[in-house]
Design goal:
By secondary structure, the chain is an alpha+beta fold. The chain is built from 4 helices and 6 strands. A 4-stranded mixed beta sheet has the order 4-3-5-6, with helices on one face. A two-stranded antiparallel ribbon has the order 1-2. The chain is globular. The relative contact order is 0.21.
Length: about 160
């Protein structure tokens, strides 16, 4: 059975990361963008990271420029923007596609595991996938679901 541990991704600073390094953690995978109406969610995502990291939780942010060209910057610009404006300390990765033929394999798997409003496609920036300690997808959340609305689901996953 496929799990989060079967994938790798390039970090925002260019290092190849084996996502198996997040085994036994509860993970929230989010496709992000710096010029989106939902960009303010970075603050809430960092607050979740701060609140639950000691219990084995992490947010993984994947910038994506597929929706309205809302992530036009370079990886360096994205990292600087996130740190300066929202104090982001959770792992950020290099820009990826989340839909289509060039979609990162992680997102192809996530979309298959939890279909959304548009079936197998991701609708917009800040779609969120909660992954359990076993590396399996627990749930998918729409961009309009704020990080603060996820605390019960995260706490439940952490206690499982």
């Amino acid at each position: 059975m496929t799990s989060l541990a079967d994938f790798d991704a390039r970090s925002i600073d260019g290092e190849q990361i084996d996502l198996a390094s997040y085994a036994d953690q509860v993970v929230l995978v989010v496709n992000t963008a710096s010029e989106c109406g939902f960009t303010g969610q970075y603050k809430g995502l960092q607050e979740l990271q701060d609140q639950y990291a000691a219990q084995g939780f992490t947010v993984l942010g994947f910038p994506c420029d597929q929706f309205g060209n809302q992530e036009p910057g370079t990886e360096d610009e994205i990292a600087t923007f996130c740190e300066k404006n929202f104090g982001v300390q959770f792992p950020l990765f290099a820009k990826v596609d989340v839909n289509g033929d060039q979609a990162h394999p992680l997102f192809a798997w996530l979309r298959k595991e939890k279909r959304g409003m548009l079936g197998g496609k991701i609708k917009w920036n800040f779609t969120k996938f909660l992954i359990g300690r076993d590396g399996q997808v627990i749930d998918r959340f729409a961009p309009t679901t704020t990080p603060e609305q996820l605390t019960d689901k995260i706490e439940s996953a952490l206690s499982s």
